[in-house]
């Protein structure tokens, strides 16, 4: 759900400010859009030309400073093709999109972060199938792992846009060096390290799952990460599609593993209080005690890089950095949990399809990456174009052939569970409800 | 905290003697120490949260997140940074709060005028024009208050985007509004949603007008429009003003209707949409929440404070039973 | 701030159109109703005069005119309202009822399944109880507070200022108010510096900080405080005006009878403002049934704080379960029936008088 875009709202001031200036500079110099359509820098856009003066509306959940970057990322495309892109971002995206589509006022293109939601619109016949050009472009640049999430009943609806890696544990390289701790490489190692830190009288972990009306999602990520590590990817897929019941013994054991940390009063919640305080701590603030040495570890996605206060150095030798959330048995591959949004369309006018195709291209992925704060699973993305270290690490993980990628499970499930009872169940679980009762309750709400 | 109040106020009421007028009686009561204390307690409880927000909005980010706003008084650290961020923003598109302000004004004025006028007409008709079924119409309108706004959004949006057709025959074409024209949709929606409550409140005033007055006018041969204009309207002006202020506050603070019918662009979106985008979604970014929230309440506050005198005095003068 | 007046001009033109439309529609309606019947009346009178000159009496024809026109006038006065309500509320209400018998995607009939779902959920019992607590406590406490305050500051030296303070929350949106109060209820672990006022007060008195919004049933009460905080201003303003409208001679008569202020309050003030009191209670009750922003912003219905309206929004719009969401909305309609019946009886009584 909002899991994916929400956190990335907060941006590093410096980059946003720089963009503000560059954006104004651009718009003042190149106000005349048509004159330079044949100029050399437009050569790459030849294929998309021919819809001069047409408008395409895009509606998504990306807002504020990041929306500016987004609009900047396709400004050259607009200049060279003459297609005008009207972008609108909203915090109420998921609910409002439903209202607009039902009301017959759908946008041309939208970026949907939940394959579950994409499925719903596709099944209702609201989405338009991607054009042959878009499909070819997507197949050329993305792995089948990714494309299956936007394929419903054999029809392909659109390519992924941005992506993120969720299997990360944030830590402070400085503190680790001082105390002589090692970055763990297996789940058992991670538990040993936690015990070692707890023995020194410090709480090893900090966590927070409060996120306004999306409260609970960070806990579902924990469960999904552990599912992915304790069962085979196939079983994970069955779990997300209800091939196995939600209260299957294997899910129970995954919760048990997560509980070893999240429900252990000796391990959590550094800087905030007891286990229950996890439910009330906002996920944006949750990891910050690492900087004050009140906790050592915080499991959160790559986008958490944006939540550190200005002036924090995010790097392998900096104040904070993240390591890959270790597998139980590294020999069996590298399970990675992640998310992303998909560019799908409610209209099939030529200019709409052109925009859709362009957004799937490596040219776009690279142009967007250069502006910072973005990761794409696009194979054509050059790692050297990615400015910050954690995004670089994410791209490397995504492009690693050993990686077994799986999409965030709660985004795949029907919203009533994935954005409803699964979240709520996790809150109650943290608040003291036992594992079996929690899972039984979620199972009972799966839409029939 | 509020439950403690009524109990103590009871003692306050018995503690006084010899009333002269309602006002005098009350003044006497105010003199009693308990009543004064109680009203001060209520006033403080009602003001403190907002005051805390106001103080917080001037504190630096790390201070807001780590210490309570009351520490400001022992350790004053003052910054305009938060307001700077909200008003001028980190992003290029947020430098246009003034533009969103204009949108809010353009949305609000007709959205207050239309429901008021229609509701006044309807309230008069339901109270003083004799025709069959009028009580049922009134009850029906009253009951419509319960229809949740959220459930009305989709059908209304469809009305605008697809028009009305019955069995393949187009009775009304789609409106196809773009950019500034979308204001019309917002006005329309706000007017629809405001009518039931407006009619309920105004009907209450209109139906209490003295019967003799109306009958005298009828005997003189005045038509309904004439009675409405020359007798009813001046008498219920205070009630209209009162509802006008409430409606103004609701429209100004509305987010849901604006999100659906105005969209998020700077051509039509009001300030609430813009502020929600910047402040409301930030979870724990208290520094933006506080300053953003304050920016959003300044205008209603000014409007209320400057009109309040007319509003209360108006209601007073509008005493129609005297 | 790159404010460009030229960009704003089209909006102001739209506003102008809006205002012109207002004058044309409302003014036109009144003019139409005034001029047209008058013209007919004059013609009829002219005819009557002509007839009267000829001999027979004119009284009978004159008397019939208003009776016939009466219904027509009612129709025209109500026309804009009825049309708008039809499009904006009546059709949506009917549609909601229809949808409540269909499945999530609204493409198949499922009979009463959604209602079955409604009553089979354990959670829904909680939701019902919570809604009930809300709809009892909010109107009661908001009205009482507003009334007491109105009585106490009436004619006081700082009346205007004092009233503004209580009215102030009305100027804040529900979302804004929820944010303000989340700040009041904020929690930090024991031994740390508190940032929430409520916990700080508790700590000052030597208590332990608590996670207020996570502890049922206290959390529901704390959310209710938010709505009371908002609505008390509404109650205060309306009731204050009603109190000021109590005729002086009634008060004087009571005084001559030697009643105590306590009796005065119960026997004079309260009966005199009864209609206003009913309006306030009814309005706040209906507003409370529909409350959803507060719960959604503060807890999103977690920790046993859910209410019908907020669950309805989640089901219909976030989970895509339109059928179940509609069933909840219909249930909301049902809950308001007692208030409607009360209103009908009220109206009957009024007509009899």
From TrEMBL, chain A:
Gene3D superfamilies per UniProt: Periplasmic binding protein-like II
InterPro entries according to UniProt: Bact_solute-bd_prot1, SBP
Domain of life: Bacteria
Keyword entries, A-Z: Signal, Transport
Signal peptide: 1-25
The family this protein is said to belong to: Belongs to the bacterial solute-binding protein 1 family.
Protein name as it appears in the record: Carbohydrate ABC transporter substrate-binding protein (CUT1 family)
Organism for this UniProt entry: Micromonospora pisi
Automatic annotation (TrEMBL), chain B:
Gene3D superfamilies: MetI-like
Annotated ABC transmembrane type-1 domain residues: 101-307
GO cellular component terms, semicolon-separated: plasma membrane
Pfam families: BPD_transp_1
GO biological process: transmembrane transport
Keywords: Cell membrane, Membrane, Transmembrane, Transmembrane helix, Transport
Region (Disordered): 1-20
Bilayer-spanning residue ranges: 35-55, 100-129, 136-157, 187-206, 227-252, 293-312
PANTHER family, alphabetized: ABC TRANSPORTER PERMEASE PROTEIN MG189-RELATED-RELATED, OSMOPROTECTIVE COMPOUNDS UPTAKE PERMEASE PROTEIN GGTD
The family this protein is said to belong to: Belongs to the binding-protein-dependent transport system permease family.
Name the UniProt record assigns to this protein: Carbohydrate ABC transporter membrane protein 2 (CUT1 family)
Organism: Micromonospora pisi
Lineage of producing organism: Bacteria, Bacillati, Actinomycetota, Actinomycetes, Micromonosporales
UniProtKB/TrEMBL annotation, chain C:
Broad class of where this protein is predominantly found: membrane
One biological process term in Gene Ontology: transmembrane transport
Organism (species): Micromonospora pisi
SUPFAM superfamilies per UniProt: MetI-like (SSF161098)
Keyword Iron-sulfur in annotation: no
PANTHER family on file: ABC TRANSPORTER PERMEASE PROTEIN (PTHR30193), OSMOPROTECTIVE COMPOUNDS UPTAKE PERMEASE PROTEIN GGTC (PTHR30193:SF18)
InterPro entries: ABC_transporter_permease, MetI-like, MetI-like_sf
GO cellular component terms attached to this protein's record: plasma membrane
Cellular location(s): Cell membrane
Keywords linked to the UniProt accession: Cell membrane, Membrane, Transmembrane, Transmembrane helix, Transport
Domain ABC transmembrane type-1 intervals: 128-345
Protein name: Carbohydrate ABC transporter membrane protein 1 (CUT1 family)
Transmembrane intervals: 12-33, 72-94, 127-153, 165-184, 221-243, 264-286, 326-344
Mode of membrane association: Multi-pass membrane protein
Family: Belongs to the binding-protein-dependent transport system permease family.
Coiled coil (residue ranges): none
